[in-house]
Amino acid sequence: MEKIVSLCKRRGFVYPGSEIYGGLANTYDYGPLGVELKNNVKQLWWKYFVQQREDMVGLDGGIILNPEVWKASGHIKNFKDALVECKNCHHRFRPDKLEDPSKCPDCGGSFTTPRTFSGLFETTIGPVEEEGTVAYLRPETAQNMFVNFKNILDSTNKKIPFGLGQIGKAFRNEITTGNFIFRTIEFEQMEIEYFISPDDDWSKVFEGWLQYIYGFAERIGLERQNFYNHEIPEAERAFYSKRTIDIEYKFPFGQDELWAIAYRTDYDLTRHQETSGKSMEYFDEATKKKYIPHVIEPTFGFDRTMLAILSEAYAEEGERVVLKLNPKVAPYKVAVFPLLANKPQLVELARKIYSDLKKDFNVAWDERGNIGKRYFAQDEIGTPWCITIDFDSLEKNDVTVRDRDTMKQERIKIGELKEYFEEKLK
Ligand code: GAP
Asked: Within 10 A of 381 (CB to CB), how many other CB atoms are there?
């Protein structure tokens, strides 16, 4: 973990939040490479889960919703955890997450009696902090999709079964710290609410989504052997769920929840119908029956996905550190180097290749130090291919393309570079 955290800061993937003010616990900022990696993963997710499926459409809802939403969803009442504080070192823990809840894992001290605290982030709307102006930052993106269920039916031609996908920020007042971007107070989720008929076999739909999720893992370069499906027993399930599988991943600090899939029944839509007084029923034209749909929810913690991708890609090979990222998610696809920075002809041709490729790919430029150092610098940030323009390039119109993983080099005609990389990125 330490090596990954250090690389993330050194090379601009992830910085500690508000660092010049001493930081703020459990907050991070994504740097220039982090934002590229993030955008690539989001695009792949959106394409795979929304655009490539006929039964899916997207949504981008707000972070602040009418507080009634959280009353209806049960979060105001139920989204609470117990907290204990060590009487000696004053570190705070959730007793349910401790292996031995009788003593502090940091110093062995004894705990205060547990207190409950709300995981909801409160804010106030308007200039005066008065009764009725309290609002909450959403603790899950899911509720936007439930409260817009009727809008979706009225504005699209979707028929059940169909689903909604959304990527966005969520906020939770987390008290346990550590493990980098694994648990933060502000994070992103990529969630799906898939609506089915109460007569459908929900367990079949559930299994189908579970398999489909693993197709995404493969696309972003995460190996199946690093995953574990953890069936959550009833007593530990969220208040809205009839079945939950936590899709756990072998992080460098241990196996823990990466994604999850839950059968939320008709809990949310029913609660919104009761609380808002608006019908959430669906009219099935084929059977002429009205019903409140049931929901299967695949959910993906986005920042945890980033951590899994970075951990799986990190490798040390002899002197070099290499991020073996799937080229589709790599921040830069290609780096372009003139062999010598003080030879104007080489630099000119290299600049031309760089600007031409930049129209189609995210391309890095480097002319510092020697070629070996430049390769190592690109390996460390996961750039799959490096192009070197040398004296032969001026004569023969070709360049050396070096592969990050095999370190093999081949000569490619300058006019064929675009197709060459497009083919590799298919
Ligand atoms: N809508 C269902 C839901 O929110 P959850 O299991 O509470 O379910 C979904 O959260 C995912 O969000 C988790 O699998 C995890 O990846 C991510 N997540 C939850 N809390 C997080 C936190 N504090 N920091 C980063 N990711 C978090």
From this structure: 25
Rounded Cα distance between 259 and 239, Å, is 18
Report the chain's terminal Cα–Cα distance, integer Å: 32
Chain mean position to CA 21: 27
For residue 246, which atom of ligand 1 is closest to its CA? 14
Q: Please, what's the largest Cα pairwise distance for the chain? A: 78
Strand partners, 201: none
Q: How far is CA 95 from the centre of its chain?
A: 27
For residue 321, give the H/E element and its range. Answer: strand 320-323
Place of tokens 């390996």: 379
Q: Is there an atom of ligand 1 within 6 Å of 139 CB? A: no
Q: What residue ranges of the chain have pLDDT lower than 50?
A: none
Q: Counting Cβ atoms within 10 Å, is residue 370 exposed (0-12), middle (13-18) or buried (19+)?
A: exposed
DSSP state of 95: G
Asked whether 189 lines ligand 1 (CB < 6 A), one says yes
Instruction: Report pLDDT digits (tens) over 325-383.
Output: 999 999 999 999 999 999 999 999 999 999 999 999 999 999 999 999 999 999 999 99
- Contact (CB, 8 A) for 189 and 301: yes
Instruction: In whole angstroms, give the CA distance from residue 203 to residue 210.
Output: 10
Give me the residues paired with residue 315 across strands: 322
Q: Are 242 and 233 in contact (CB under 8 A)?
A: no
Instruction: Give the β-pairing of 134-137 and 162-171.
Output: unpaired
| 8 A C-beta contact, residue 121 and residue 139 | yes
- Cis check: omega of the bond before 161, within 30 degrees of 0: yes
Is the bond preceding residue 384 a cis peptide, omega within 30 degrees? no
Q: Which of 301, 291, 314, 34 is nearest to 153 (CA)?
A: 291
Residue 51: predicted pLDDT = 98
Which of 120, 174, 304 should be mutated for ligand 1, with most atoms under 8 A from CB? 304
Q: Is the CB of 183 inside a 6 Å radius of any atom of ligand 1?
A: yes
- Nearest residue to 260 via CA among 222, 232, 218, 234: 232
What is the CA angle 202-140-84, rounded to 5?
Answer: 110
Structure tokens at 321: 């550190």
